Amino acid sequence: MSETFKVCFCCSRSFKEKTRQPPGSIKRLFEAYSRNGKMSSDDLLRFVSEVQGEGHAGMDYVQGIFNSVKHHNVFHIHGFVHLNAFYRYLFSDTNSPLPLSRQVHHDMKAPLAHYFVYTGHNSYLTGNQVNSRSSVEPIVQSLRKGVKVIELDLWPNPSGNAAEVRHGGTLTSHEDLQKCLNAIKENAFYVSDYPVIVTLEDHLPPNLQGKVAKMLTRTFRGMLFRSDSESCKNFPSPEELKKKILISTKPPKEYLESQAIQSSRRTPGTTNMSWRGENKIPEEDEEDEE
């Protein structure tokens, strides 16, 4: 499908939109309820009443349809729907043959890995990934929209004595890690009780990893999921993990690179012990309970 639009009110540009073409039956239906390739709100109201059998529909209902497809209609005069937007509408949730329920209706007792999860990326950034501000605000907004995976990039602060959240190698600002953890704790289950996964992109040395592990334990306490064994055949189910926060991470890239260099220099029989679980999330001790 070709689209044409004006640039600076004087020049025209066109491009070919790579979309699946509506079948002939849809084209004929659109032609029957449109004029000159455009469907007005009156035309659409006539369609939903006569073809869809939605006798309750009024102009407010039709306006809701327009709002749902307007991002497919930017190349036509405001207030009209073109063929491609009409086609998208027919197969959208707005035109679902069954009433959509906001209640969970799937089986949530299968292992967690069997599900798609609503995931965030660089969840602390307020804008682009080059020079935007880091804040807890996007974390709160994401969790309140139903996002269930929050990503935090962890780097040493300039003094090297604490971890901070920032997008390394860019001009973005940093945010306090404890503030981010508090925001997650307070909003994790705002939408549902199903688990939240905190993904840590770890660029920390071992001493700061230990500090972060204690911060996670102290902040999340009973919410923090702890596996009963070092390895398990299957993840627990979302149902079993309700009200739990899971931590997902892996050895830092910097550590893996140094390991590769060291292993090439090591003599047979020696091992590097710097990453043997010494920074696992610790059990809460008496000081943390207080």
Automatic annotation (TrEMBL):
It comes from the Eukaryota. Residues 259-274 have a biased composition (Polar residues). Keywords: Hydrolase, Lipid degradation, Lipid metabolism. GO terms for molecular function: phosphatidylinositol-4,5-bisphosphate phospholipase C activity. Residues 253-290 are annotated as: Disordered. InterPro entries: EF-hand-dom_pair, PI-PLC_fam, PLC-like_Pdiesterase_TIM-brl, PLipase_C_PInositol-sp_X_dom. Residues 106-250 form the Phosphatidylinositol-specific phospholipase C X domain. It catalyses: a 1,2-diacyl-sn-glycero-3-phospho-(1D-myo-inositol-4,5-bisphosphate) + H2O = 1D-myo-inositol 1,4,5-trisphosphate + a 1,2-diacyl-sn-glycerol + H(+). It is an enzyme of class 3 (hydrolase). It is found in: Cell membrane. One of its GO terms (cellular component) is plasma membrane. Its EC number is 3.1.4.11. It is a peripheral membrane protein. Signal peptide: none annotated. Its main location: membrane. The keyword Lipid metabolism applies. One of its GO terms (biological process) is release of sequestered calcium ion into cytosol. The keyword Hydrolase applies. PROSITE patterns: PIPLC_X_DOMAIN (PS50007). SUPFAM superfamilies: EF-hand, PLC-like phosphodiesterases. This is Phosphoinositide phospholipase C. It comes from Brassica napus (Rape). The lineage of its organism: Eukaryota, Viridiplantae, Streptophyta, Embryophyta, Tracheophyta. The gene is BnaCnng61000D.
